[in-house]
Amino acid sequence: MDMHSVVLGTSGTTAQDVIAVARGEARVELSGEALAAVATARAFIDELAAKPDPVYGVSTGFGALAVRHISPELRVQLQRNIVRSHAAGMGPRVEREVVRALMFLRLKTLASGHTGVRPLVVETMAALLNAGITPVVHEYGSLGCSGDLAPLSHCALALMGEGDAEGPDGVVRPAAELLAAHGIEPVELREKEGLALLNGTDGMLGMLVMACADLARLFTSADITAALSLEALLGTDKVLAPELHAIRPHPGQAASAANMAKVLAGSGFTGHHQDDAPRVQDAYSIRCAPQVAGAGRDTLDHARLVADRELAAAVDNPVVLPDGRVESNGNFHGAPVAYVLDFLAIAAADLGSIAERRTDRLLDKNRSHGLPAFLAGDPGVDSGLMIAQYTQAALVSELKRLAAPASVDSIPSSAMQEDHVSMGWSAARKLRTAVDNLTRIVAVELYAATRAIEMRERLTPAPATRAVLDAVRDAGIQGPGGDRFLAPDLESAYAFVRGGKLVAAVESVTGTLA
Question: What is the pTM of this model?
């Protein structure tokens, strides 16, 4: 397989494939096995469609309207109408990478051979992805149950040559124009196909997969900034000894402690906590950094387990079973995904909170063990990083609000037929904001800690720290000195963390971190 293509079979996909398609513009190919399975399942649907017995999604209405039997001459209209009526999203456009992930994951389920669509539908959806055509999807419209209905409907609308979409050039225009420009024929949907395009957890799952990847990098980044803060505060690295973490055997905690120890190896800063104002112990925000970040890591591992299970799933209603039965089910309910999206928002909030406490300690001359107030060049004349911490605190406060779970809410819909929903899409949307906020919080700690280390001129930092200092300055992020316009420096620090440059700088010395 070419590194720039992803092949879909019948057994699901991987997180790496989702990210490759969503963010890396990888091409999607359909295996012969998948196309054969799709054709087999479609034959079962065609057989059922020819019988007089009502089958949900094939020859009935939808949701609370499923009591009506639909005659054969109205079924094309039925499938077209469900897409048009369900494409009822409102609000800002959803990010391109989210829509691509959503489409790819819906295609993954269609290719499983459990949905009953024709091979033509599967091939056309792959063609849209490969052409870089991204339907316009809106922020609001999913309750996370019966699938991410409105978001998926907007994608299905584009498949029909209706609605608006963004082309590979980033310009939004009518979907019909984009399909014609790329030689793609719009699909006329037949029995079951409109429903199959709408009924999945694909939006929330795609956002979960990308959040997991981003948080994995952020947990490592936060271990690094925690180590830099410990170093800048002349803390002790004895609390990172592996034997201490072995007696409380949470794997994430051990991984975070090991990361911090690698960053601090060879530091001339550690061990000076007894010099000017002797300390028996460092503050919790320093001493307990591995415990907090480690708990987040373990939460992330659980979220990845749920994501992997969902990536192997075929989520639709009804589903086509291998023996030809077409059965209604509740597999579209987003609870498993919604819960972990909320769990991750809680972990992100707590990690942001402890990072902000370390930053505040670096800036407070009464607790920073010899550093100038607010790390200012000339305190009083200069305010230093005083307001950078305000910005960080505002981000932390918002993180705490974002940690309020969405999945505990439910609003009945469809005339009480769909009387319990997951709100998983909402959980995913707020997690994306939380991940971005956390990245900014870690960036402010990085900015403060590197500045503080450079202000302790008589001591020699760890080799890994030196690599970070060099990389930060190479990125144009300035060091100690008089007051200046801070926003550009903070934005550069954010880009430095978000782009993985912090982790890369450390790993150039330490080797791979956990």
Answer: 0.96
Asked if residue 452 and residue 375 are part of one domain, the reply reads: yes
- 432 alpha carbon, distance to own chain's centre: 6
Residue 459 has φ and ψ, to the nearest 5°, of: -110, 155
Q: Among 143-157, 264-278, 292-306, whose mean pLDDT is lowest?
A: 264-278
Find the mean pLDDT for residues 279-305.
96
Out of 56, 140, 339, 447, which one is annotated catalytic? Answer: 56
Q: Using the 3D structure, point to which of 200, 232, 265 is the last residue of a domain.
A: 200
Examine the domain organization and report whether 185 and 226 are in the same domain. Answer: no
Structural domain including 215 reads 207-510
Number of domains in the chain: 2
Residue that is written with structure tokens 């080797």 in the block: 511
Q: How many residues does the chain have?
A: 514
Q: What is the CATH number of the domain that holds 84?
A: 1.10.275.10
Both 317 and 457 in one domain: the answer is yes
| CB 82 within 8 Å of CB 62 | yes
CA distances, 66 to each of 110, 111, 224, 326, 464 (Å): 22, 26, 56, 15, 63
Could you confirm whether 56 is annotated as catalytic? yes
**Distance set, CA 493 to CA 119, 260, 415, 499 (Å):** 48, 20, 50, 10
CATH of the domain at 258: 1.20.200.10
Q: Which of 50-64, 125-139, 324-338 is the least confident region? A: 50-64
Out of 200, 223, 243, pick the residue that ends a domain: 200
Average pLDDT of the residues of the chain = 95
- Rounded CA separation 481/353 (Å): 27
pLDDT at 3 over 80: no
Helices 386-402 and 424-455, packing angle to 10 deg: 160
Average pLDDT over residues 386-400: 98
Task: Indicate if 250 and 135 belong to the same structural domain.
Answer: no
Q: Which residues contact 209 (CB under 8 A, 6 or more apart)?
A: 15, 18, 19, 101, 307, 311
Instruction: Give the model's confidence band at 414: pLDDT under 50 very low, under 70 low, under 90 confident, else very high.
Output: confident
